[in-house]
Design goal:
By secondary structure, this protein is mainly alpha-helical. The protein is built from 19 helices and five strands.
C-alpha cells in the first residue's frame, strides 16, 4: 500500500514538474538547463518539446547503461516509461498554457519565477516519493558512483554542460542564440533552492504519509534507560569545561569531540572537515542556495546534512549506551522525547564571555568580541536550520544557567535538578 502511495505521489510530482517546465519555457527567457537541449532542438526541427525530451531522456538512459554496465538495475529501466510519460505531460502542459504569451519583460519575469516555484515543488514531491529518479539526476548519480566524484560538483558540471551544448546547437542551427537566456541561469539557481526550502518546511509530511518508513520508537521500559545530560552553550561561557567537570562528578561518560570521530567513521569524511562544518552555519538561506543541487536526490544529501544525520545517530547510540553528558550538536532536540534526559542551556553576560575568551585564546578585546558574536550566530543558525526552534529558548530546556555565577553554583544546581528527572 505504501509503495502504491509513493508512486501516486511521484506521478503527481512528475505532472507538476511538467507544468513548471512549460511555464518557464512560455516565459520566453530560456528554459531550465536539463530542458535546454530539447527546447533548442524543438525550435529548429518539426518535433515538440515533449518529443525531444523523450529522445534526450532515452539518450541519457543509454549513457547510464554504458557507464554502469553490470550495476545497471531495474530502477534504471523504470526511467524509460517515466520519461515517455513526462514528455507527454510537457506537451499537454504547453497546450494548457497556450494562452501565456507575455510581451512585457516584467510579465516574463513573473511567469519565469512562478514556473520555478512550481518546478521546485514538483522536484520536492518526486524526492518525497523516493521511487524513481528522472534521467538527468540518475545520470549524475551514475557518474558519481562509477568515478567516485562529488555529487554537487558533478551536478553543476552537468547543468553547465547542458546549457553550453544547447547554446552551441542554437548557433549551429539558427545562427543566433535562442532558447538559452537569463531564465536558464535563474531556474538553475532557484529550482533546487526552492525544492530544499519545501523539504525543510514540509519535513513533517514524510513521516505523516509514510509512517512505516519512519524510525521505529523504542519500546523500552523507561526505568531502565540511562540518564543523559544534553548541554547547549554560548561560545565563551565555559560550557565544555563545566560539562567535563559535571561528568567527572557524576561518574558519567563525557562526549564532545568524540562525536566527530565517530561520525567520521560512518560518513567517510575527514574529522577535520567535520569539525569545520560541525555546529556551524553561516547563513541558512545561503546554505540552501549553495546546496540546491542536492535537492534532486534523496539518496545523496549535502555533506553537512549527512554529517548532521550521522551525528544524530551517534548521539542516540551514545544515549542508549550508558549515563553520559553530551555537548551541543542539537542533542537536546534529538533526545527531546527521551525519558531521563536533562536538557540544559549555559549562558553568561557578554563581558564575562569576552574576558574569558581573551584569557583562554589570547585575543584582543575586539577580536574576542567579534569571534563570540560570529560563533554564536553560526550555532544559532545551525540549530534553527535543523530543529526549526530558536536557539537558547528557555522553554526548550529544563535549566538555563548563568555560568558567571560560579562553577559550584552551576554544578550543584544541575545535580540537584537531576534528582527530579
Amino acid at each position: 500500500m505504501e509503495k502504491l502511495k509513493r508512486y501516486i505521489i511521484f506521478f503527481i510530482g512528475l505532472y507538476i514538474n511538467s507544468l513548471g517546465v512549460a511555464l518557464i519555457t512560455k516565459a520566453s527567457l530560456g528554459t531550465s538547463p536539463i530542458s535546454s537541449i530539447p527546447y533548442v532542438l524543438s525550435l529548429n526541427f518539426p518535433f515538440t518539446l515533449g518529443n525531444f525530451t523523450i529522445f534526450f531522456s532515452l539518450l541519457l538512459i543509454f549513457l547510464q547503461l554504458l557507464i554502469l554496465r553490470k550495476n545497471f538495475k531495474l530502477e534504471h529501466i523504470l526511467q524509460i516509461p517515466v520519461s515517455i510519460l513526462f514528455g507527454y505531460f510537457i506537451d499537454w502542459s504547453m497546450i494548457l498554457f497556450s494562452f501565456v504569451h507575455p510581451q512585457m519583460y516584467l510579465m516574463k519575469v513573473f511567469y519565469l519565477l512562478l514556473g520555478c516555484l512550481i518546478l521546485g515543488f514538483g522536484v520536492y514531491t518526486e524526492v518525497l516519493a523516493n521511487v524513481v529518479m528522472l534521467p538527468g539526476e540518475s545520470f549524475v548519480r551514475a557518474v558519481t558512483l562509477t568515478w567516485k566524484t562529488e555529487f554537487g560538483i558533478t551536478k553543476i558540471c552537468f547543468d553547465v554542460s547542458m546549457t553550453i551544448i544547447a547554446a552551441l546547437l542554437s548557433f549551429l542551427f539558427a545562427h543566433h542564440l535562442d532558447g538559452v537566456r537569463e531564465g536558464t541561469i535563474v531556474s538553475a539557481l532557484l529550482v533546487g533552492f526552492i525544492a530544499r526550502l519545501f523539504g525543510r518546511f514540509l519535513s513533517f509530511l514524510e513521516p505523516a504519509l509514510f509512517p512505516s518508513s519512519a524510525e521505529p520508537t523504542e519500546s523500552i521500559d523507561s526505568s531502565s534507560l540511562p540518564v543523559v545530560i544534553a548541554i547547549a552553550r554560548e561560545y565563551g561561557s565555559g560550557g565544555h569545561e563545566l560539562g567535563e567537570k559535571l561528568a567527572k562528578r557524576l561518574n558519567f561518560d563525557f562526549y564532545d569531540n568524540e562525536i566527530i570521530q565517530m561520525a567520521a567513521g560512518s560518513t567517510g569524511y575527514d574529522p577535520e572537515f567535520i569539525k569545520n562544518n560541525d555546529e556551524q552555519m553561516r547563513n541558512r538561506l545561503f546554505y540552501d542556495l549553495l546546496n540546491q543541487v542536492y535537492s534532486h536526490s534523496a539518496k545523496t544529501p549535502a555533506p553537512k546534512d549527512q554529517i548532521f544525520a550521522e551525528e544524530t545517530k551517534v548521539i542516540k547510540k551514545l544515549a542508549s549506551k550508558g549515563n553520559c553528558v553530551i555537548m551541543g550538536r542539537c542533542a537536546d532536540y534529538t533526545l527531546r522525547e527521551r525519558a531521563h534526559c536533562m536538557k540544559i542551556f549555559l549562558h553568561a553576560p557578554a563581558q564575562y564571555r569576552i574576558d574569558r575568551i581573551m584569557k583562554t585564546e589570547h585575543l584582543t578585546y575586539e577580536d574576542a568580541k567579534s569571534k563570540i558574536l560570529q560563533m554564536n550566530q553560526k550555532r544559532s543558525d545551525n540549530y534553527h536550520y535543523y530543529t526549526h526552534q530558536p536557539w537558547g529558548l528557555a522553554r526548550n530546556y529544563h535549566l538555563t544557567l548563568d555560568t558567571s555565577m560560579g562553577e559550584d553554583y552551576v554544578l550543584n544546581t544541575i545535580c540537584e535538578g537531576l534528582k527530579n528527572i
